[in-house]
Design goal:
Elements lengths: L2 E3 L5 H4 L2 E3 L14 E3 L24 E3 L12 E7 L8 E6 L4 E5 L9 E2 L12 E3 L8 E3 L1 E2 L6 E3 L7 E7 L2 E5 L5 E5 L3 E4 L15 H6 L55 E3 L3
Antiparallel strand pairs: 1-2, 3-4, 5-6, 5-8, 6-7, 9-16, 10-13, 10-16, 11-12, 13-14, 14-15, 15-17
């Protein structure tokens, strides 16, 4: 993905960095592979805000992405590369030899006209999906399953990748994007290569209005509030809040461990990310 900058004809254009979308070839999503997306504005079934700073935004439709890749042994042709407003990665529209279509995450280097395949018989080339036990050591993979047949859960955002480090019996060792080294069942499937759209992290929206188009509402600092509204509010003049950073409900915001002690998955972690 290439990026483009703009002449500063307005304050919002001065720092804007946008994608050129030159790799997007799909003119519109396949209607049968989309669903309507309901907006909840961060509210639960009682109408109370449980996730702050959400609301508004453009209308979107959910793309049905095939994270299982369970149609094995059937060749698929990449018909187009499409844009997905709900994620950072682009999508590849596949048409299988039996006529069915599906969306998958577009791996880096995958272009329209290429042939992809799923299953043990597939070659270890970018875009193909096969069990971890059959992927050569040292290769980069993405869309990794945690449980065989459950569907991809890890490394699904733009530019993400895991590395196959070692193999012992039925287990495969992967290095995750966070730096964590973890054991996986060799029957778990993964897609060879890196998720495309690598430059997504360098995009700059340029103005607050574009953030509102994404459905993100303004954020107010706790120290700028009154004591009745936030544990860090109040004080004569400018203060740092007088104490440890906390959420509006008094939960510590820094330094606390978020991982549950004695979690069942501790046994498969070889090296923690820290």
């Amino acid at each position: 993905m290439a990026l483009k900058t703009f002449k500063a004809r307005s304050p919002g254009m001065r720092f804007r960095v946008s994608s050129t979308f030159e790799e997007i070839t799909e003119k519109g999503p396949v209607k049968s592979l989309t669903l309507p997306k309901r907006k909840k504005a961060g509210r639960n079934n009682q109408g109370r805000i449980t996730v702050r700073h959400k609301g508004g935004g453009e209308k979107r439709r959910l793309r049905i992405v095939d994270f299982r890749r369970d149609k094995e042994g059937v060749e698929a042709t990449v018909e187009a590369i499409g844009y997905d407003p709900n994620r950072s990665a682009n999508l590849a529209l596949l048409k299988y030899a039996d006529g069915t279509r599906s969306y998958v995450l577009a791996a880096d280097g995958v272009k329209p006209g290429m042939t992809l395949m799923n299953g043990p018989k597939a070659e270890a080339t970018p875009g193909n999906c096969l069990p971890l036990a059959l992927i050569p050591l040292g290769l980069k993979v993405h869309c990794v399953e945690l449980v065989p047949g459950e569907g991809a859960k890890l490394s699904r955002s733009a530019g993400n990748e895991c590395q196959v480090m070692a193999r012992s019996g039925d287990t495969v060792t992967l290095k995750l994007p966070s730096g964590e080294v973890r054991l996986f069942n060799g029957r778990c499937r993964a897609v060879v290569g890196t998720v495309g759209n690598k430059d997504w992290g360098s995009i700059s929206l340029g103005k607050a209005g574009r953030k509102r188009h994404l459905g993100v509402r303004p954020t107010v600092r706790g120290v700028a509030m009154n004591p009745v509204d936030h544990p860090m509010g109040g004080g004569e003049g400018r203060t740092s809040g007088g104490g440890v950073p906390r959420s509006p409900w008094g939960k510590l915001a820094k330094g606390g461990k978020t991982r549950k002690p004695r979690k069942y998955s501790d046994r498969v972690i070889v090296k923690r990310r820290k």
